[in-house]
Design a protein that fits this description.
The chain is built from 2 helices and 7 strands, in the order H-E-E-E-E-E-E-E-H. With 166 residues, it is α+β, with helices and mostly antiparallel strands. It has a single domain, classed as Immunoglobulin-like (Sandwich).
């Protein structure tokens, strides 16, 4: 009888181990963003545009090829509005701006957690390293963030002098 229970327990353990999901050996780090350079801004005239670059590094430490979906979200602190976004100085003066995923600046780069998800999705596939004695396979990539300071704004003198408007 005890042999029967031992066999049943072993079968249940194997069944549990088979149901455990596989774990990928991909890890991503070194996510950095360059500054958004708008240059001289005259928000009382037309839009002023700038770009920034998001850089990431991922590696596969395993023997098998793995694919992953990277999601880059840019949300507002406290879940505030994203259209338009606002920069604010210490005196509560606002400058309206927006961040986009496309060069035409039509698709807002938002968050996967907002009502209408507009986060950037990057699909990657990284081959395995083949044998354990070789180093992990590393892949790097970039994505461009497009920005726009919205025109027609009336700003205080502190912002005008900081932005270098003539």
């Amino acid at each position: 009888m005890s042999t029967y229970l031992l066999r049943c327990g072993a079968v249940m353990l194997l069944g549990f181990m088979a149901a455990t999901p596989a774990q990928a050996d991909i890890s991503c780090s070194s996510v950095t963003m360059s500054p958004m350079a708008f240059g001289d801004v005259d928000p009382q005239a037309t839009h002023t545009e700038g770009v920034a670059t998001l850089s990431y590094t991922c590696e596969n430490d395993g023997l098998l090829t793995w694919s992953a979906k990277l999601c880059f979200s840019i949300g507002m602190p406290g879940g505030g509005p994203m259209d338009p976004r606002k920069m604010q100085d210490g005196a509560a003066n606002n400058l309206n701006f927006q961040l986009y995923k496309d060069p035409a600046r039509t698709t807002i780069w938002g968050s996967q957690f907002s009502g209408t998800p507009t986060h950037l999705i990057v699909n990657i596939t990284i081959p395995g390293r083949g044998v354990l004695s070789t180093p992990p396979v590393v892949r790097t990539g970039t994505a461009t963030l497009y920005g726009r300071v919205l025109g027609g704004q009336h700003l205080s003198s502190w912002l005008i002098s900081v932005c270098g408007v003539c």
